[in-house]
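User: Can you help me understand a structure? I only have the sequence.
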Amino acid sequence: MIELAGLTKRYGEKVAVDRLTFTVRPGIVTGFLGPNGAGKSTTMRMLLGLDHPTAGDVRIDGLHYDQLKDPMTYIGALLDAKAMHGGRSAFNHLLCLAQSNGIPRARVHEVLDTVGLTAVAGKKAKGFSLGMGQRLGIAGALLGDPQILMFDEPVNGLDPEGIHWIRNLMKGLAAQGRTVFVSSHLMSEMALTADHLVVIGQGRLLADTSMADFIRANSRSYVRLRSPQQERLRDVLHEAGITVVEAGNGTLEVDGVGADRLGELAAGAGLVLHELSPQQASLEEAFMQLTAESVEYHAHSDPASSPPGAGPGAPSGGVSGPAPGWGEQWNQQQARKNEGA
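Assistant: Let's start by predicting it. Here is the structure, written out as tokens:
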């Protein structure tokens, strides 16, 4: 179990982590979310004693990290897949870690097999691709067979098979009763992996709740209906005291009433339905809704290249485009060359 109590970290006047208090419990995968600059990596570093808190406390199974004897047998972590000596082979990299924590040599072979790197165990890590380096980092986290696992962006560089593998690995570890704490910016993957969410913004706790409750609390849920007898359907629903909103294209939307109730009303009136579908936002949409005021780094599109109808007030979540006039000097030089040709 990981326990944070009022955890705070300041760098001069900058507050990177602001009085965080939450518990990461065993038996489930806990997702750790937040915009860039929210303080996730700093929090994880403080868990491992790599950064010291300005205030507050963080404990692993009731102890500070520096109080753990052979800490890799308590907690395994992947924070940076590149944190290895490139001149060492994959096997020797893991062997050094094992020897520092009293872990048997045979365990190195086991984790290399688990992550699928046995065939390249003798190759130097500097020649590894990003995905292979990520697998080696995961092997290091698993080395001590710890009860607590912590991963920061574990799917970076992995191919689809690798992503499927690490997802099932984390779920399997949690099913064994271990504590699994994972940070990722891939919302679609987190939605498939995490059972519980801890969300922070600008260093402060925004949510500590189950996946289902998080989406429910931060998004609109409604039922969409379509019928060739739309006018009659609207009348039937109004007679039942149900508010209906026209969404265009022959679609009606209803909030606060279950699809089963709406279907029963339509059937009772002998109405044909072409669609009766509950709608709920994705994790990404719910996350964007909650953290909208906590995003520190905003990208802005080039107004000159914005799609038609996109005015100054339109959302700007896309990749930043070149500023107006970008490349203009080069274009003028090319024009002069062409004139002289």
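Now, to help you interpret it: The two ends are 74 Å apart (CA to CA). The first helix runs from residue 40 to 47. Let me know which part you'd like to focus on.
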